[in-house]
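pasting for the record
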Amino acid sequence: MAILVTGGAGFIGGNFVLDWLAGGDEPVVNLDKLTYAGNLETLSSLEGDARHRFVQGDICDAALVARLLAEHRPRAIVHFAAESHVDRSIHGPGEFMRTNVEGTFSLLEAARAHWSALPADARATFRFLHVSTDEVYGSLGPDDAPFSEAHPYEPNSPYSASKAASDHLVRAWHHTYGLPVLTTNCSNNYGPYHFPEKLIPLMIVNALAGRALPVYGDGRNVRDWLYVRDHCAAIRCVLAQGRTGETYNVGGWNEIANIDIVHIVCRLLDRLQPSADGPYERLIRFVADRPGHDRRYAIDARKIERELGWRPAESFESGIEKTVQWYLANPGWVANVQSGAYREWVGMQYGQPSGAVA
C-alpha cells in the first residue's frame, strides 16, 4: 500500500507528507517539479526514510506519471501540485494555466487509466483527492454568508480561474468516467515551511530583517485563516471517510483582516524577539492595491464537521504563535529559500528594493 502525493515539497504538500509519515507507516511517493516554491529542505527529516520516495518531475509528464503509477500501484493520489500565488498569476498567467489546468487534466487521465486497470477490489477503494481553494468562489460582501459547497464559482484572478477550471475537470471525470474523486476547498493556510511571498511569512521575515511590511490598499481585506496542520488532518479525514464525488470546504473559523494579521504578528515579535529599534509596527507601509483584489473570503465548514467529524484543533491565537516561533527557530530554512530571484520578485511586486524601508 502507498499513496502518490503531487506537490509534496511545497508548503501544504510538504506539511502533509511530514504529517502522514509521522502518523503511520504507509509509504509516500512524492512527485514535485521543484519550482521556486518547492523545497526539499522541508523534507530533510525524511532523508534515508524508506517510506518516502521523492521523484522530481512534472505532473504534465504523462509518461512519468504512468510509470510511477504502474511501479508503485498507489491506492490514492493526493493532488497538491499547483501554482498558487495570485500576484504571480497576474504578472504571468501562462504557467498557472499549464500547471493547474493542463497538469490536472494530464494527472486525471493517468489516474483514470491506472484505476481502470485495477482489480475490482482495488478499484472500489482507489481515491483521487484534489486539493483546491476557496478563491474559486469569488469575493463576499461584508454581510454575505460564508462560502458553502453550493456557492457558485466566480473566480476573479488568473490563479483562481485556473483552480476553478481544475475543480470542474475533477468533477467531470467523476461524472463522465466514474473516477472516484474527492475535492477539498480550503481557506488561507499558514504555519511552518510557508514560502515568504505570502502575507504571514512575509511579515515575519521582513520584520526580523528591519524591512518594510507592505500592506495592500487599506488592509481591510478579510480572509479565513487555517493552520496548515489542521488542514492536513482534514485531508486525511476526507481521504479516509469522504463520499466520492463530493466537495468538502475546509476552514478555520477565523475571519481576520490583513492589517489585523500584521498587527498580531508585530506584537508577537515584540514579545518573542524585540527589536532594539522599537516596535515592529513602525515598519508597516501601505502600498498600491493589486488589481481585482477580492475583499472577503469566509468558509462554511459545517459539512465536513457534520459528515466526517473534523474540526480545527488550533485557534488562531495558538496557531499564529506556533508559526512565529517556528520562523524564529529556523532562520537557516528561511535564508535558504530567499534566493536572488525571490528578492527581485519582492522588489518588483511592492515597488521597492527588498532591503528598503520606504
